[in-house]
Amino acid sequence: MIRTIMMPVRGDGKAPNVLCFAAALARTHGAHIAAVHCRPRPEDLLPYGVPISKKLQEQILKNSAQVAEHEDMAVRKELISLAAELSLPVVDGPNGVGASVSFSDATGRQVDVIKRKGRLVDVIAVAKPDRDRNIGINTMQVALFNSGRPVLMCPPNAEAPEKLGTHVALAWNGSAESARALSQSLPVIHEAQNVSILTNGTDAGPGTTVDEVLHYLAAHDTKAQVVNFKATRNIGAALLAETSSIGADMLIMGAYGDSHERETLLGGNTQTVVDQSDIPILFSH
């Protein structure tokens, strides 16, 4: 079951959209959203390799601390207001009585905060990376590669449903990544009203066929339907099209079977989904 959803935030304007999708998932599972504002350390904002006077250094540290405090207050105010609109109770922590949200702050780079606080939650919710503006790329990469947790990537400019995960699609090719995605997403799959397994007919041989996935899910008291699609090239785009075609509200898939750097430079199924998706994606690596 999903009980805690971590939502790392900072003053980049992405937080409200992520909270809407995190709230939709929280409603489905009666989960708690732990929104953590990541405040940079003032000393991290000092110019690197540039000699400056002690007085100027002290002034920069003071101003940086004031800016961080102002940003924290602004983000917290914005999210508390949105939580009220979403009918999300603001509490101190998980209380087990339904969807709720808490707000805290942590000092340090966002990637470091995720490493520290992201390993003992059930899902980490992040914004879809904006490669054009170079925003959110490291956040998602660290959440995937350094937390060991599934990562919900929330699309921008999309309206979140009241509940998320009512019809989920699982991308299956028999790989270790897709097996991990299946295992880590069982709480989501178990609560879904409809489960579809997307396959283009490829697997890793005996023990990894789509029929065996059906048997595995049946052992977990879950029924699923198989959806076959034809694609030999640009499988990522085909997965997104098929997910939309069947009306699923979330795609579950393994992430970066090849290295992140290789897929980013040369293209790959995961990177295609990251770049082109307009629906929530639950990634596992």
Describe this structure in words.
With 285 residues, this protein is an alpha/beta fold. The protein folds into 2 domains: 4-154, Rossmann fold, CATH 3.40.50.620; 167-284, HUPs (Rossmann fold). It is 41% helix and 19% strand. The chain contains 10 helices and 10 strands. Strands 3-2-1-4-5-10-9-6-7-8 form a 10-stranded mixed beta sheet, sandwiched between helices. The model has no long low-confidence stretch (mean pLDDT 89). This is Universal stress protein. Belongs to the universal stress protein A family. Pfam families: Usp.
Give the topology:
Blueprint: E1 4-9, H1 15-29, E2 32-39, H2 54-85, E3 100-107, H3 110-117, E4 123-127, H4 137-146, E5 151-154, E6 167-171, H5 176-184, H6 186-191, E7 194-199, H7 210-219, E8 225-228, H8 235-245, E9 250-254, H9 260-266, H10 269-276, E10 281-284
